[in-house]
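Z., the sequence and structure:
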Amino acid sequence: MKKKKHPIRTIFKGVFLTLYLFVIGFLFATGFALRAIIDDKGYVATTYAKTVQVGDLTYFYREAGDPEYDTILFIHGFLGSSYDFIEVIDDLKTDYHVIAVDLIGFGLSDKSASFDYSKKNQADNLIAFLDTLGIESVTIIAHSMGGEISIHLAHDYPQYVERMILVGSAGYYDDTSPSFNIRLPLFFYDHVFNNYYIQRSFFFSAYSKDEVNQKLVTYDDFDEMFYVNRTIPGKVLQKMTLDSDAGTTNDKLAGIYQDTLLIWGENDGFIPLATGQLLLAEMGANASMIVMPGAGHLPFDTYFDDFIVHVRDFLT
């Protein structure tokens, strides 16, 4: 007598097979997407590209303009890279010596699992980077996390920093600020956080609805970003969260004497304008702010023409 199949077991097998096929298809789709990015976005790795050895670390950076001109140092934000500023570099290279650095752990610089990824240590290592290049003084243009690193630089090494432009800058924390020093399983960083389609699904959240609706930003911009982000190992991403020193800049803000321009997107959803206004108040009389209407967290990306006018007005 033929044994009857249990309906629950049949349903379970069907669900399992469906999930299995979905995962296999998802992995194939991810592989094809990465291959297309590698084939199409190679210019991200070559435009103005240079490397330099600083102790045991190799920095990737971009350099343009006459070295006899005043130097501008660009510092990107979290999951950003020197390529974020490519349009600004193209514009300013005619009048300035421009250096845009990939921080250790990001972009195409070294990604050591033993490096101290605190913002303070990133700042200390940037001084060694500048010393290696023979650069004694810079104007800083920094975005988001890069602004927090710049605050450490300006306070701890004031002789190196002439003035700053901080865009949607981190660096001011209060009791409502999120904490990121949480240990999550390595699997999460390798296969969830660092997955192409998952990162892609959150990409537009860095921009305002108006910017997205007007197509001022597209998934092509994301592919340029992911070209370098795909190289960050999960172990490094995990260590970045564990090495967080968020809040250590609070006591340094009032001690920064360099002229500083804060540029903020009116609709910044990552670091809200209200936080920027608190940062402005803490920095005192040497700081000023420009709010860009309609912009999100990356106004230099979506409203470049207005952004570069503000930058040049401050620099001249």
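The two ends are 92 Å apart (CA to CA). The mean pLDDT is 91.

Let me know what you think.
H.
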